[in-house]
Amino acid sequence: MTPLGARIAALIAEAGPITVADYMAMCLGDPEHGYYMAREPFGRGGDFVTAPEISQVFGELIGLWAVAAWMAMGAPPSVALVELGPGRGTLMADLLRAARVRPAFREAAAVHLVESSPRLRAVQEATLAGQAVTWHAAIDTLPPGPSIVVANEFFDALPIRQYARTGGGWAERMVGLDGEGRLAFGLRPAGGASPSPALALPEAGREGEPILEVSPAATAIMAALAARIARDGGALLAIDYGYEGPAFGDTLQAMRRHAFVDPLADPGEADLTAHVDFAALARAASEGGARPRPLLTQGAFLTRLGIGTRAARLAAGKDAGAAAAIAAAVRRLTAPEAMGTLFKVLAVAHSGLAALPAFDHDERTDGA
Ligand code: SAH
Fold this sequence. Notes:
With 368 residues, the chain is of the alpha/beta class.
């Protein structure tokens, strides 16, 4: 067992089973052994690859989206450009480079990064050397005022709680210990139809699809950001793998060296995520007072923003190998069998914002 696994097992032996959310939070955020605190997760030598690490075009297109959103906001003279969970800082670096097309935007935008890991913050500092950046451990300290918020693979890292419908009503899935003292899943009766008044659980689960997931952390962050946007103006873009729920099924997953592993096997040494329930995020945004747009697939989003044209420009003058690599990266980001369909894009904006690039889109110009 990993050092963190031994600590979690001792805690459970002492105080009883913990929720899946607490387990995730410890695995990812433990100050000493937590996955994002201690490891280098990204890239070929890491555990997984994210879209900004696949191609610079990804962050560049989001930069152009941000510029267009800012113009739709009426080009305010100051705007907080916020990224949640910036990883290595690659997306923000590509975004800022592309945003130079509109110097007034660069002058207006103050960069704010929300990052809980001091180690990744140091990586971001190196990637963004020369840029003025303010870091925040959580969204609470973001300054008031209009904002443009982007988040790629952030919401999937937030803890989820899992519920199962049993003969005796809803039960919460817990992490406890088996007879040999190893971490094991179990169920704890949640009492009544809805285990918590804060969680609107459907009355009836469906046979054979036993697990229902909710992420109170994700919906709380979305609602707070939506309330900011409703008050001060702005727009938000959340990109992640996920579904439009409610959906039944266990999506808790652990990834290590590009392979799925048992989520209980290596606490702190595997990335632990869950698929994002975009319907729940959109609902939270509405409740916060902002307007969510219908969900787009990542493939449709990037295509509408002109990924084909941008990639062709990048490939121009490059040798055949480099051009093929660019084309392969575009396919990976957009093809339905790669990231194009599983990954989805939710935009949320102030209700007064007329048009959002890619979302308020004239279908007749598709592919033009
Ligand atoms: N956006 C990056 C990284 C995704 S990994 C990319 O696409 O490559 C998730 C990121 O969110 C990491 O930077 C991680 O440290 C950060 N993170 C996870 N949980 C967080 C939390 N609760 N608050 C702030 N940052 C968090």
